[in-house]
Amino acid sequence: MQFKFRIATKVFFGEGCLNKNKSEIAGFGKKCMIVTGRSSGKKSGALDDMTKALEELSIDYIIYDKIENNPSLENVADAGKIAREEKVDFIAGIGGGSPLDASKAVAVLAVNDIQPVELFNNAFDNRPLPIIAIPTTAGTGSEVTPYSILTRNDIKNKMSFGNDDIFPAVAFLDARYTESLPYSVTVDTAIDALSHAVEGYTNKRSTIMSDIFAVEAISVFGECLDNLLTNKIDYRIREKLLYMAMLGGMVISHTGTTIVHGLGYPLTYYKGIPHGRANGMLMAEYLKFNYEAIKDKADNILRLLRVGSLDEFGKIMKKLVNTELSLSEDEITLFASTGAKHRSVAQNPRDIAVSDMVSILKNVFKVW
Ligand code: NAP
Ligand code: ZN
User: Fold this and answer.
1) Nearest CA-CA partner of 110 in 40, 14, 33
2) Is the CB of residue 98 below 6 angstroms from any atom belonging to ligand 1?
3) Does the beta carbon of 101 lie inside 6 Å of ligand 1?
4) Tell me: the pLDDT tens digits for 29-75?
């Protein structure tokens, strides 16, 4: 039995947790940069709560609210330059995975005057600024991961960077902040969280410890499945989704993801499919491809979800993602070769070749 286990984030979970624990912020310095999306901070109520807490603690702040979905290197470079010029002491990321991931890049760029592409070196002269993470989606688990996924227009793909220093120092998880989410984003992001748990559980790097979190996350998703399918998503369900998303983040912090994410990135880059939805389109086929190598775990996933078969799981995912997509032969070739370069290929339960990725894509999508 061998494992390493580390989550370097202090997590506060529950209604009003930011206000109740705002003293946690006091030690990070005199000036904060809030990094958020165009609307998520405001719509969720988290931005108001954070600025109120900072004012009560007499901490200065500036707000950068121009983070794009699937933030690009150019986007985080812009925010990073401002953070450097304004000499901020710490960063507060508020939003879905996009602003949270961006806040990690900004925390590095605020104290390292490097070319943004050098973020992918994963080693920095100066230690990144402390990060406070406040998720407003229940999906990525970025609030407890050491990863930041950025869009690289130079190579036309998404790529992650990170090391243990970009784990957020503190995370405030309050399901009230997810109540303003539209149904489609609620579903897409919940699928992302499930995908993290499933990919982590079936991953070559899974350990006895990461499995505890994965099994719990899959089971909690199973408890929410009918509500997600029927759009009956009350506060109690939102709390469960936020909890399972956090667990999913803790899983991939140790295992990384698999080709579901590797093949999902080009679907997002070229076709604009939201991140979680792209994973949802691919997950059943991923389990089918790997079934013999992970039979016990795959069966356990179905049992935890209370789903009878992989085919039934596929139908449920199809209903949840609710998107028809056809790809050309050229797109399939491009996406498969892009997926094959993803570092998770080595972690896939079975050896996987580009031709297997082509087959997976052809099984999922109509080809024209
Ligand atoms: P997102 O891109 O952060 O947000 C999706 C949409 O939801 C945006 O339009 C956003 O608005 C809106 N939104 C967010 N919270 C809202 C709220 N409470 N009320 C109303 N609207 C809200 O989506 P995400 O799925 O959470 O994050 C996806 C990103 O995370 C991808 O780049 C993905 O690669 C990355 N990711 C990271 C990790 C990791 O470990 N770091 C893991 C998986 C995925 P605004 O535009 O106004 O913000
Ligand atoms: Zn993901």
Assistant:
1) 33
2) yes
3) yes
4) 999 999 999 999 999 999 999 999 999 999 999 999 999 999 999 99
